[in-house]
Amino acid sequence: SQSDSGHVRVCVLCEARSSEFRQALLSGDLDAVVAAYADGAANLNLRSPVVIDGQARMLPVHCAAACDALPVLKWLCIDKCCPLQGPTAMSAGKAQKSVLRVAIERAAVDVLQWICNADDAPVWSGVPMRLPADAGCSAAALTRALEAALRGGWAQ
User: Fold this and answer.
1) DSSP 8-state secondary structure symbol assigned to residue 84
2) Which of 86, 84, 91, 96 lies closest to 128 in space, CA to CA?
3) Does the pLDDT of residue 8 top 60, yes or no?
4) Beta strand residue intervals within the chain, DSSP E
5) Residue 126: predicted pLDDT
6) Inter-residue contact 142 to 130 (CB < 8 Å)
7) What share of residues in the chain are helix, strand, coil (percent, to 5)?
8) What is d(CA 54, CA 50) in angstroms, rounded to the nearest whole number?
């Protein structure tokens, strides 16, 4: 519920579960993410931004992309049906970011390769991301170029 000061009151247990889930997401450890989700599943919304530094900013899919946690991202997308593209897959705030943009900014090579070439993603997820017809290259060529650039340290 919301108090007169504009702050939302949250159950202490719910806040603890949310914090555990956030820490697991940011660690990129799939086992920890799954365990934290199971502990707080009744009160965790995978399509709501995660609170970081007191502000709701990134969706769980952004957290997974930011730390190049491909197993976590696959779990969110495939097992939990979290979208990776479209208006419901944008980060919160004034400068909204896509999962792809977060992955590029963080040089998340494994995530980028999967986003561009996934053969195990559900059709509805928007993965693999389709390149425009006038892009002048295939997704495989783009992935190889990204991998070479990012693993080679050019994204510093």
Assistant:
1) S
2) 84
3) no
4) 50-52, 55-58
5) 58
6) no
7) 55, 5, 40
8) 10
d(CA 99, CA 87): 11
The model carries a pTM of 0.74
Mean pLDDT over the full length of the chain: 76
Q: Are 77 and 121 in contact (CB under 8 A)?
A: yes
154: its two tokens: 């050019």
Any residues with CB less than 8 A from the CB of 30 and at least 6 apart, and which? Answer: 69, 71, 72, 75
Contact 103, 129 (CB under 8 A): no
Burial 28-40 (b: 16+ CB within 10 A, else e): bbbebbeebbebb
Identify whether the C-beta of residue 36 lies closer than 8 Å to the C-beta of residue 14.
no
Let me know the angle formed at the C-alpha of 132 by 129 and 135, rounded to the nearest 5 degrees.
Answer: 110
Beta carbons within 10 angstroms of residue 72's beta carbon: 27
State the amino acid at position 67 in one-letter form: C
* Identity of the residue numbered 101: R
